[in-house]
Sequence to fold (448 residues):
Amino acid sequence: DKWRVTNGFSSIHFSLFTVHLKLIAMLQISYIRENKESVINGLKKRNFKELELVEEAIALDEQRRLVQTKLDNALAESNKLSKEIGTLMKEGKKQEAEAAKAQTADLKEQIKQYSASLEETVNSLNDILYRIPNIPNALVPEGKTAEDNLTVFQAGEIPHLFEGALPHWELAKKYNIIDFELGVKLTGAGFPVYKDKGAKLQRALISYFLDKNTEAGYQEYQVPHMVNQDSGYGTGQLPDKEGQMYHVQIDNLYLIPTAEVPVTNIFRDVILAESDLPIRCTAYTPCFRREAGSYGAHVRGLNRLHQFDKVEIVRIEHPDRSYEALDQMVEHVKGILNELKLPYRILRLCGGDLGFTSAITYDFEVYSTAQEKWLEISSVSNFETFQANRLKLRFRNAEGKPQLAHTLNGSSLALPRVLAGILENYQTPEGIVIPEVLRKYTGFDIIN
Fold:
């Protein structure tokens, strides 16, 4: 406690910082095999329904190791016989040499069969491992749905709007700054067109978010808006069980659901020096999500889109420091929302609401005054080694041995609901006032 007070950590942050950080190759088969009960308990906390996959993975791993041993023995015996054949021929022992050649031919057939069996077993094992989600951190609360998420922080006053205040989709129409119908004409529902001051406000938010991130030490990237299959598997978007990604089948490319995917994959198959850590990245991209199954009043206006803009932050961290980094990312997003003077809260997601790849996630929600509900605007997550294991993203530790890094990412920020919050919370009878921190970017103080 004395250390915590001296170094300025709140009790919430200290609990994060001191959680045990023993490096585990999260959901590598070796970890599953050696920690079966804790893996099963963690998956139960997620309300994961396919617990039998754990036993199937262990059984396939046993089979893989057995076949690998047979293959190694056959290869060793084949090499041994090959050397003996040369010696026998030199010694004129032709009959014995021919017998050894026959043995070698049999071994080659066995090696071929073992190799095929090994490849099939490894592919089956990988298919199962790709279906098993990350294990929740001990701090993740129990729960099944979003209603069980834990509110850990709330800030900002919810404004009292004047009589006749409108939701953002009505404001967009009134001031002619977002055209949802034109988006339907051009593409379909969920692809709005931003116009005039609406487009300038979008651009202002993107520039502001990027400036805040780069000022905090994040290096800016411009990355492709489509990725290949390896990238999708690397960060956990593939296999896409819920069918949420847009797939360009003729080229087998995927439109990105977030900049996290291409940015984190920059470090796929890379071994870093320990001195390279931490690595901080930020990028602005449009994001594309099919949002299959979404319908109803909650998708009105900017609440849920198929294409939207987002500025992302990504960190590659030493395992001993990743939870300190998570705290820093949470504080960073808090700072942006405080400057925008929007009412917001932070939730620690429960096991049942946790994303597939995440070990722990904090959601930020801004209050929509006109809609009288909270809207998610950011998720900040620590994936521990889950993504790094898929990506083969490692660093050399003090002993020079390759070790899996920890990956983290967060929205900083997603624009649609931030924009909705600004339009609704800043509306006045005279128009929509622009938050002071954005005015140097927009060049105007009010939309009217």
